[in-house]
Write the structure tokens for this entry.
Amino acid sequence: MKDHLVIFDTTLRDGEQSPGASMTKEEKLRVARQLERMRVDVIEAGFAAASPGDFDAIRSIAETVKDSTVCSLARANENDIRRAGEAIKPASSGRIHTFIATSPIHMEKKLRMTPDEVVEAAVKAVIQARQYTDDVEFSAEDAVRSDFDFLCRIFEATIKAGARTINVPDTVGYSIPSVWGERMRALIERVPGSDKVVWSTHCHNDLGMAVANSLAAVMAGARQVECTINGLGERAGNASLEEIVMAVRTRSDLFAVETRIDTTQIVPASKLISQITGYPVQPNKAVVGANAFAHESGIHQDGVIKHRETYEIMRAEDVGWAQNKLVLGKHSGRNAFKTRLADLGMVVGSEEQLNIAFARFKELADKKHEIFDEDLHALMSDETVTPEQEHYKLVSLRVASETGETPHARITLSVGGTESQSEADGDGPVDASFKALERIASSQSELLLFSVNSITGGTDAQGEVTVRLAKEGRVVNGQGADTDIVVASVKAYINALNKLFSSPEKVNPQI
Ligand code: KIV
Ligand code: ZN
């Protein structure tokens, strides 16, 4: 019998702390549904006290998700714990994750608190959190640079106060596997009451060792790993969920644990996160990179044809690469469309929204014979602004581009229901279109990112564009997809503008 390894996904909290990766409530809900479908044990849905927007998103996730525990982060203070407790209230299983820094540098320079005060605040926070839920996790931020005896002291105290999970973070990605595993083993041995809690690890990737350190902690007795899809997260990111899960599964001869993850949902989750945040996945990324199962050398190809396992330690279909099924075509009906969206975890709010989305699907099916799941995700990404938030709407776009000539764009936009037209030259058709658009919108925003990807293979594939705009400290990502990449770019820009000008939400919940 193997022990259960709890997979605690923090894509929606630590992952969202990546610069520019902030998500809207609707986007967070889509991600949470996918995480639930993947059978993640705990979804850290956000940091409730960070902003009303984050609170709202956590609450909606708590109302929606049934098969995963929904967790909110909270600093060790009264207000944070109260907000977290209120946000997770509707969850069928809710957790509060409270933390305080324990390293000398953080206590002295950041918190300006003595070690005694830190222990007192941690204990108080855990006791308060237990009033909202029995499932309380305590983290010692910067545990990697904390004094070992002090860690033992604060963990003993918080276990006595009622914490059920004790998390040991390498906040700054400083450790190496042998040292990190040893620290976990020593803590489990030394801390009184350690047998009553689940020991957890949370590793950042500053030296590229987040996954290796997490796995070393598991070998030493940790039974929860905190991780993110695609390794998204602060700075160099967190340990990547897909690598942890597949390492434990593929090397089950070495690990005494198993997860309950449906691994076939890994690639769809990776693509969804990449699409929503605009963070591309590097082609050679383990498990979810486009080349992770591609064999280029003749010798390798020959080997795989003769016997797959000569060069493959995992099967592409086991992590969801075969999920990219041909799903719908131009003759598919409204019901089939709605059912497939539901299968993919996308719930269309009203009948009117469904009709609009279906009309757009039909338009796409006219241009592109084969519609894949990724196309549907892209199509629905455009729906992440509600009709009320759709202040800017593309009416028409005409672009002229010819070798030796300056590209020129003419655009008609509906702005709050009134049509306006404008024209501009540019360095390319996209540049000309954005300039024409800005002549109408005058958004005074800064373009931080413009990225184009092909959603599926073939020259009729849709181009998927992410545009990241910043204005007065707010950063938003807009998505657009179309078989014409200039149109996709304009749609992405308009999507970003609509997000920028809708009700302000938290930008980057840096803590
Ligand atoms: O990296 C870290 O220490 C954290 C804590 C809040 C767990 O994210
Ligand atoms: Zn972290």
In short: Residues 3-277 form a domain with the TIM Barrel fold (CATH 3.20.20.70). The chain has three domains: 3-277, 326-383, 387-502.
